[in-house]
Amino acid sequence: MEQPKDDPYNVTIEIKNEQCKGLRALERAGIEKYALVDIRGEPKGPTRHLMRAPPEGFSKFPKQFFEKHITEAEETKTAWFSTDGCDICRAILSNSSFLISAKHVKDYTFVYNFIAPNFEAYRSIISSFEDRNIEFRIMKIGRFNPRRDALTDKQERVLWIALKMGFFDYPRKLTMQQLSKRLGMGLSSLSEILRRGTRRLLEDFFKS
């Protein structure tokens, strides 16, 4: 069956990432009790890791690595720190895909959630894993499928990606500026698409 060429895909995949520089940095610092909660990144630039650990664990880690502390309670602290990234993150991001998040499961096993702009990008990412003999398991894959006559194709695609990336979550997982950068469009254009698309959906929902 021929695959659609231009429809974005939302992919959840479990990968054994022994190259993860975030975990290696924690090991070198001698931090044993921690949780690597999230990983974010861009095609060019550092990969950001969200770590949760007891306060004593943070005292072992070089302070210059931390961007900011997110939470600080009696039992745990949570903060972002950055590394140069790895081949797996680069493979995903270099194909114009959006890395939504990556959760550390155990050892060097992660669950990555990303959006590939089309089937060719998705296959390129999977092929790069296969070429490097990286262990992975596809857990879930969903393709954008236009459903409503109320929206234009562009409005529906933008709203679908925004929803998948957590733009409508509370709290939001990314800002309007970050979303516009990921989509490669200006803030004013994105704002208009979201506003008009939301209005159309509400009018369609409430029409008698």
Report on this structure.
A hairpin with a 2-residue loop joins strand 6 and strand 7. This protein has helices at 21-28, 55-58, 87-93, 119-131, 153-164, 176-183, 187-206; strands spanning 9-16, 35-41, 47-53, 66-72, 77-83, 98-106, 109-116, 136-143. The strands form 2 sheets. A 4-stranded antiparallel beta sheet has the order 6-7-1-8. A 4-stranded antiparallel beta sheet has the order 2-3-5-4. The chain is globular, with a radius of gyration of 19 Å. It contains 7 helices and 8 strands; from the N terminus they run E-H-E-E-H-E-E-H-E-E-H-E-H-H-H. It is of the alpha+beta class and 208 residues long. It has 2 domains: 9-143, no CATH class; 153-206.
Q: Which features characterize this protein?
A:
alpha+beta; 4-stranded antiparallel β-sheet; 29% strand; globular
Tell me the major beta sheet: 4 strands, antiparallel
What's the pLDDT, averaged over the residues?
Answer: 82
Count of helical regions = 7
With strands numbered from the N-terminus, the spatial order across the biggest sheet is 6-7-1-8
Rg from Cα: 19 Å
Low-confidence stretches: none
User: Proportion of β residues?
Assistant: 25-35%
Order of helices and strands: EHEEHEEHEEHEHHH
What structural category do the secondary elements indicate?
Answer: alpha+beta
Overall geometric form: globular
Kindly state the percentage of residues in helix.
Answer: 25-40%
Find the count of extended strands (DSSP E, 2+ residues). Answer: 8
Distance between the termini: 40 Å
| Number of self-contained structural domains | 2
